[in-house]
Recover the amino acids of this structure.
């Protein structure tokens, strides 16, 4: 070890990060009887005080965490947010055409587009939009083929979903049938992650929302084709995109957005961890405010633990964090260290510890332990844009909404039987489709938000509260082809953020330009779905892209200048090292022993349309594989 210790490790496993990957794997290992220490750089979002841009001088926690419709505020709550500023382009001109580009923020120089992350117990599950949509089976098949490991087979992978899910969005007759051993939906009924549906009655009572749903549904059914199949999917799946029968068919069509809430209150790995620690206090220890800074090795090069800094707000992306070093500590693991800091932080920690591209490590005077060129490369994300429509009048369903404790709708949410639009994340309808019939898989998820959402920039979340008369169609492009993004070290200081560049579109690896064409196709698609609302005068103006942006070339330019993403992944992919791989099929870091990665970094290709379902699933799989490795 760098600085040998005679101390006997107290824990079998030390896990870094409590998000979708780390929280899931740590809790399951502890439940399986293992002794686990979890290090989390942030604090408990329900125990902290913090304001947000809507009410900067008030403590908005725990509501920002709890209330589904407040999820935008949670991404900007100053107690839990980590503000990354990422580049979409190296080219300065291309980058600065994005109106979201910032060169400074809060009197500090920054250089990029705001990319929110949560540095808190629960990781990004503490601030995400809670949408849980199952990945495509082809994503798992790809991994099975790549690795030759049949445990990635889609049928087998579904069992991890069944294990973690507590389905509350489908009841009659499936819940009861499952008790008789029949489970055609292959939902999980007794797992730890509750999935709920929230299209509040109040929303359906809003005449304009009703019209939006009606016209969009008719428009989507007409556009998407597969008429007969579509009806049978609708009847079978009841608009639930996670029904196994629809998943098997790569179904397209309209759906609702299932949410990870419990009684319409956010609940994910934070709750999972705290409940597990309460049940097995001798097996799971959670140390908050612990920023892992370096992996520790034995003299024989085996990973034996971690060095970390103890203290609040030690990572510089935590804006407003005081400049202090924290107290240096060590945590030892008798069996393994598991990294789950997410797609930006896991490669950073590997590189800081001497595992990564040799030239980069040497440039920062870091001793090279394993020259692994793939670390931090292959960064992927979705492309997302918003088609923003101003409505003639405020949505009735939002009438009285101040997005604050005690307002009329808040009271409905806070009542014993939670109701009202605050139970939702603002999305009233989703449509899954292919951007062109040539795409092998459905690659667009378009969802209608009753709110104004132009993407992420500092204080973007204020817009939700300031405008009650907007319809945003968010167009999300899945299965992107660009694999040219990268996370590189800015310095060897673990308190600094790494430099992140996604190399969008023309700078990326999608030479055929399919990604750009698909997003443009998505914009045109949602425009067509809005035609009736425009004809009836409910939409008074399309503000973005705007009526003057019509030709394909103009739309392409709009997309290049405005697109964003929030499913960063794939920076430590499973695969052979000579092909840029970082991990073995069982999550071990090549060239090391006693070290694995279990988070959104592990995918060679970004899965599905939403990512968090796949992260939960690989983490359940990892827990099984790791537990089985130590009989
Ligand atoms: C605004 C937003 C909305 C989103 N909405 C959705 C959605 O609706 N549906 C969906 O499918 N996906 C969504 N996502 C994406 C999804 O939430 C993430 O991809 C997922 O949580 C990633 O899981 P992870 O385990 O890789 O990392 P994270 O969940 O980010 O967890 C990483 C954790 O590690 C901790 N950490 C990092 N470095 C260190 C260190 N050195 N020491 C100690 N701790 C450390 C961090 O504090 C964090 O808690 C959203 C993401 C964002 C940003």
């Amino acid at each position: 070890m760098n600085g040998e210790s005679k101390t006997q490790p107290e824990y079998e496993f030390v896990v870094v990060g409590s998000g979708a990957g780390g929280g899931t794997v740590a809790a399951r290992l502890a439940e399986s009887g293992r002794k686990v220490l979890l290090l989390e750089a942030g604090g408990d979002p329900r125990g902290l005080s913090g304001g947000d841009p809507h009410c900067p001088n008030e403590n908005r926690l725990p509501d920002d965490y709890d209330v589904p419709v407040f999820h935008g505020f949670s991404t900007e709550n100053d107690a839990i947010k980590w503000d990354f500023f990422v580049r979409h382009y190296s080219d300065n001109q291309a980058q600065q055409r994005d109106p979201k580009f910032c060169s400074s923020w809060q009197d500090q120089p920054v250089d990029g587009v705001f990319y929110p992350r949560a540095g808190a117990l629960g990781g990004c599950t503490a601030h995400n939009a809670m949408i849980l949509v199952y990945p495509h089976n082809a994503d798992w098949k790809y991994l099975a083929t790549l690795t030759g490991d049949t445990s990635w087979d889609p049928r087998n992978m579904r069992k991890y979903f069944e294990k973690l899910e507590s389905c509350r969005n489908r009841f009659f007759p499936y819940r009861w049938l499952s008790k008789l051993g029949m489970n055609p939906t292959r939902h999980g009924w007794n797992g730890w992650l509750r999935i709920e549906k929230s299209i509040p009655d109040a929303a359906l009572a809003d005449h304009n929302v009703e019209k939006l749903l009606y016209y969009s549904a008719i428009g989507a059914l007409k556009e998407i084709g597969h008429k007969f199949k579509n009806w049978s999917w609708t009847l079978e799946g009841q608009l639930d995109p996670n029904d196994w029968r629809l998943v098997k068919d790569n179904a397209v069509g309209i759906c609702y957005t299932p949410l990870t809430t419990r009684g319409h209150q956010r609940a994910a790995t934070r709750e999972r961890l705290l409940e597990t620690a309460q049940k097995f206090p001798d097996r799971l220890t959670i140390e908050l405010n612990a920023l892992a800074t370096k992996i520790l090795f034995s003299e024989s090069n085996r990973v034996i633990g971690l060095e970390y800094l103890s203290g609040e707000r030690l990572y510089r992306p935590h804006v407003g964090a005081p400049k202090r070093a924290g107290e240096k500590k060590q945590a030892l693991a008798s069996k393994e260290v598991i990294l789950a800091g997410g797609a930006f932080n896991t490669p950073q920690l590997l590189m800081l510890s001497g595992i990564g591209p040799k030239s980069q490590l040497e440039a920062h005077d870091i001793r090279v332990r394993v020259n692994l060129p793939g670390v931090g490369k292959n960064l992927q994300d979705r492309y997302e844009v918003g088609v923003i429509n101003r409505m003639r009048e405020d949505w009735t369903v939002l009438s009285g909404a101040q997005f604050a404790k005690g307002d009329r709708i808040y009271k409905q949410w806070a009542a014993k039987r939670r109701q009202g639009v605050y139970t939702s994340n603002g999305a009233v309808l989703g449509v899954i489709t292919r951007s062109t019939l040539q795409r092998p898989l459905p690659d667009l998820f378009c969802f209608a938000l009753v709110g104004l959402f132009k993407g992420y920039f500092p204080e973007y979340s204020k817009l939700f509260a300031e405008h009650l008369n907007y319809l945003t169609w968010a167009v999300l492009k899945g299965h992107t082809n660009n694999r040219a993004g990268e996370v590189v070290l800015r310095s060897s200081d673990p308190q600094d953020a790494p430099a992140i560049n996604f190399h969008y579109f023309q700078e990326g690896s999608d030479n055929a330009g399919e990604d750009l064409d698909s997003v443009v196709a998505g914009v045109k698609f949602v425009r067509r779905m809005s035609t009736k609302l425009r004809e009836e005068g409910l939409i008074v103006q399309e503000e973005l892209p705007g009526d003057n942006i019509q030709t394909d070339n103009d739309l392409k330019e709009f997309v290049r200048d405005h697109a964003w993403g929030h499913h960063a992944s794939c920076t430590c992919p499973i695969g052979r090292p000579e092909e840029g791989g970082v991990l073995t099929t069982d999550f071990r870091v090549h060239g090391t022993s006693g070290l694995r990665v279990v988070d959104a970094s592990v995918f060679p290709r970004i899965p599905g349309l939403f990512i968090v379902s796949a992260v939960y699933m690989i983490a359940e799989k990892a827990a099984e594989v790791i537990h089985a490795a130590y009989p």
User: Anything to note?
Assistant: The longest strand covers residues 327-339. Residues 1-6 have pLDDT under 50 and may be disordered. The longest helix spans residues 207-224.
